[in-house]
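Hi support team,

I submitted a single chain yesterday and got back a structure, but I'm not sure I'm reading the token output correctly. Could someone confirm the output below corresponds to the sequence I sent? I've pasted both exactly as they appear in my results page.

Thanks,
R.
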Amino acid sequence: MNKNILFIIPDERKVYEDASEKVGAFHLPSLAFAILGAIAKKNGFNPIVLDLSISNSPYEELEQRLLIYLPDYVGITCTSALYYEAIRVAKIVKQKLPSSKILIGGTHVSSTVEETLEKDIFDYVFIGEAEISFDKFLKGVNPENIDGIAFKTRDGNIRKLQNPSYLRNLDDFPFPDYGIYNLERYHFSRLYCRNCPAVWIETSRGCPFNCQICNKVVHGQTFRPKSVERVVSEMEFLLKQGIKEFHLADDGFTSDMKRAEEICDRIIERRLCFTWSCTNGIRADRVSQNLLKKMKKAGCYRISMGIESGNQDILNNLGKRISLEQVENAVRIAKKAGMEILGFFMFGFENETETTMLDTINFAKRLPLDLAKVSPIIPFPGSPLFTKYKALDLIYPTQDYRYFNFYMQPRLVYRHPSIEWKIIERYQRKFYRSFYFNPRYVLNRLMHSFKIGTLFFDLKLLLRMGWFKSMEGKGR
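Hi R., thanks for writing in. Yes, this is the structure output for that exact sequence:
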């Protein structure tokens, strides 16, 4: 055994090549592989990452790396939209190195274990949080005795061991090792990053809320925080490795507002200097003026907020458990604290109408947001909405996972129960035109960009926001 492990990230550019919102896409190094890479090193293995998303000749480079490193294990992670790219990668591995064992993990395969193994391409599926199961696997424990691993037996049956309980103490695991990446190869738009290198970091896992569109298979619904000392020490460690910006992967960084304030206090006390963003979003009902001021002082320049809809009935049916009044208050105090705000919205809820979509457009225009994004509802495997729509026979049986993609229209994924896709698409275009070409927004944006020195970039961005024109007449 040469103890080489090759971690492969499928080419995400395949997700966006037919998408209209390329301007909104960005790609950071995988946090999962940074964590698993640290665990691999602890067990005496040599982890190598091949990120096909930043390769000029991805599949040629894949074949070359396989023959150079001859890895005994190949690890792949994928979203639903990249599942077929993961299959393509696995087939190349099997062709070039038939003896290599292919390991795969992530939300999609954790939700479709049997279907994934029926392909007879992947050797082991790591279900849910893989730190413990991966560690035991590398230590040589028989996979039949490791919770959280599924595989096909010699007689063709699928052996799926009981999912492990969610990791209780997140402080127990090594710091993520981004040294396995060539970070100089990652380039980011000023739209999403202020400083490079930029990486994902997590301070907690789990979201205690139960929105119908979310998949909780991997991290669950229990909020599990790292200790304040662990979080800040991890940040300090990564800063020493040359990292300059963090993007929080937490489902709810501010779920415990007192703890979030303590993290900010510790960053300030230690005089750590970096920029950071709550990229995955925070809830409108879990902020305060004091917290946001401390976040700003500690280096946070932007928060994302899952607003979803401008209609209260839609939010209630979604299970979001926030009010429009709370959203308006959160955005107002965030702006007062000097934050940039990205608002996430969605169209195509089960009870959506033209009136409710118009409510969302008007609500978004009323809020002093710096950026806004509206996506179609996708019933991802493992979400309550997928289960419901599957039972109602609304999910198309072909289930081409390439279309389970927030950057494309899901008309090929499922039949909407109450409204035609062409209407949803029309209002999505209207949302972007109304928001980004609102004279008040344009003026405020240009004044802000002049203040922070990004005027040229923002002028270019506004021109690129004409993406909706290319959608006209395509009949997606």
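A quick pointer for reading it: The mean pLDDT is 89. Let us know if anything else looks off.

Best,
Support desk
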